[in-house]
Design goal:
2 copies of one chain form a homodimer. By secondary structure, the first copy, chain A, is α/β, with parallel strands linked by helices. The first copy, chain A, has helices at about 45-50, 125-135, 165-175, 190-200, 205-220, 225-245, 245-250, 260-270, 280-295; strands spanning about 5-10, 15-20, 25-30, 60-65, 80, 95, 105, 110-115, 120, 140-145, 150-155, 155-165, 255, 275-280. Chain A folds into 2 domains: about 5-120, 2-keto-3-deoxy-galactonokinase, substrate binding domain (Nucleotidyltransferase, domain 5); about 165-280, 2-keto-3-deoxy-galactonokinase, C-terminal domain (Nucleotidyltransferase, domain 5, 2-Layer Sandwich). A 6-stranded mixed β-sheet of chain A has the order 3-2-1-4-7-6, sandwiched between helices.
Amino acid sequence: MTVDWIAVDWGTTHMRLWLMTRDGQVLDARNSDRGMGTLAPQNYEAVLLALCEDALGTKPVPVIICGMAGARQGWAEAPYASVPCAPPDAHSALRVPTQDKRLQVHILPGVSQRTPADVMRGEETQIKGLVATQSDFDGVACLPGTHTKWAHLSAGEIVSFQTFMTGEMFALLSQQSVLRHSVSSTGWDESAFAAAVDDAMGRPQAVAAKLFGLRAEALLGGLEGAVARARLSGLLIGIELAASKPYWLGQQVAVIGAAASADAYQAALTAQGVPVLRLDPTEMTLAGLRAAHAELEHQ
Amino acid sequence: MTVDWIAVDWGTTHMRLWLMTRDGQVLDARNSDRGMGTLAPQNYEAVLLALCEDALGTKPVPVIICGMAGARQGWAEAPYASVPCAPPDAHSALRVPTQDKRLQVHILPGVSQRTPADVMRGEETQIKGLVATQSDFDGVACLPGTHTKWAHLSAGEIVSFQTFMTGEMFALLSQQSVLRHSVSSTGWDESAFAAAVDDAMGRPQAVAAKLFGLRAEALLGGLEGAVARARLSGLLIGIELAASKPYWLGQQVAVIGAAASADAYQAALTAQGVPVLRLDPTEMTLAGLRAAHAELEHQ
């Protein structure tokens, strides 16, 4: 096995690592739950080495990292690029010194926006993958997740973006609030979801009024947990779509996210007549890191 | 000390108990953190006895309880009264048998509403206190808390009501979400609060768009934690006021809640030109339980 370089997506709760060949093939994929949230700066190198040392020879290997490892509380702070800008390239990556000289660590910067204030770390690399693989794409990227990002793209640049805490709100409300008694952890109801999206888009304040109703209807009317789950998701995605309308109205939208949440966004956008291009989030991350590696090679 | 009866407000996380004289004076106030959430049905009597046994003589004493002790997961289920209805009186209370025959336990029912589905347990007794003490009041009650309740009152009856999860959302977002890094646990900024209420009332979807902005502005612009706290509260109360407008518009509003949150609601309502009557929540609970005791006496 000849590893030519290493691709890493280092998030808050997890990290994923791919051993790569020169021509961008994946030799092996590995992962760890040692996310940024669990690590002090001096711990990163050991976590990285433990996952890849068996694949290292004697020569130095570039390690290209995106995500929260570059945050202020991460391994080392990789300053943000500011919109409008192309997704940061390898030349602007932060070179982090290591004790093991076989590791040549490069952390890609995140992207920030002054007004309205916003930041991303990791999604810019998925957008880089989108730009690299869909060269004719001109539209809007939607990246559902804990913090969903919407980004206006034009000529390969991020023009503006906006973050919504929809995924985190759904997790908190369904698992930690009083609604946890009424919202099941699995199951779905497509028509309940669609109706809740419509409700919230038409009257965004309905979200505030209807959340406790999920609990009350379960107590009084035996509302099913799966229906409550779909309705809660629909209310939260609906108010997000009401607020993100300047992003998606009249645009083609590339939805880049894990299956369950991307399915929900796709359904809601399709119902609004928005053409959706679904892209795999891991493939986009890898494509973005591959593009960064190519930039490094041509340095 | 001659205890004539005992008043109890038994909530999800706490219980409060007052030793009362025949004429409604408080001899002593006691409390416990053994709320409904921590208790199985067979544990309630012991918790109650531990707090009041020193005050019991040989004769039976009425114990009048409101709140979550009457929930399905509580001591014993006291069925809901349905709106439109007066706050439930002592004759509809659930008589719960006890091993210690000196305790005559009565649990007051909650109130439910079929459409839109809603429930309350405890607040109906504060409303009973409002009706008992402000006989000329005809308007709307707003009871800020973990789950804020709005109730239309007319001729001593609850005509309709609506619950908002604003308090719980504020706690989850400020303490458990990514915003915990940016929102301080104390401090306030009145103008930031007022501006956020206006924002959210004018464009309710702004709430979805602006939450993560609190984090981003702290990272990029050094937003102060106290300002972020007031702004988060303003966004959540603002979307609640947008949704509860049919309750408060053109009405007098009695705000019954703990100081900090009642202050915020009062400020937001006053800015909308709504006349506010502030009432102490403990006094209203006690007044409601006193009224129930009087009903029991005249049984």
